[in-house]
Amino acid sequence: MKRFLLTVLLVAATACFTTAQQFYSHQQEAEFLENISSSYAENTNLEVIGKSAGGKDIHVLTIGKGDSGNKPALLIVAG
User: Fold this and answer.
1) Residue 68 has what DSSP assignment?
2) Average pLDDT over residues 1-23
3) Residue among 52, 55, 16, 21 nearest 36 (CA)
4) pLDDT tens sequence across 24-74
5) What is the dihedral of CA 34, 36, 37, 40, to 10 degrees?
C-alpha cells in the first residue's frame, strides 16, 4: 500500500509539473500540495518549515503512517 501510494503521488507530481509547457507559480504548487494532503489526509502531513529569500512559504509534504518522525525517510528536494 505504501509503495502504491508513493507511486501514485510521484506519477501525479511528474505529470503535473513536467508535461506542461509552462512553469507553475508558487501559489499553484502550494494548491497542488494542499490538494494531495487533503485527498490523502490519513497518510500525509503538509507543513510550512520556513520562508524563502523572497518571503514565500517553504512546504514539506510528509508521506507515511503513524510516527513517521521515527522511521527511515527519503528526502526529495526540487526547485
Assistant:
1) G
2) 61
3) 16
4) 889 999 999 999 999 999 888 899 999 999 999 999 888 888 887 788 888
5) 160
Q: Say whether 62 sits in a helix, a strand or coil.
A: strand
Q: Are 58 and 50 in contact (CB under 8 A)?
A: yes
For residue 62, which of 37, 45, 41, 49 has the smallest C-alpha distance? Answer: 45
Question: Does the reported pTM lie above 0.85?
Answer: no
Cα 41 to Cα 22, 55, 62, 64: the distances in Å are 29, 27, 11, 10
Place of cell 508521506: 63
Which amino acid belongs to residue 22?
A: Q
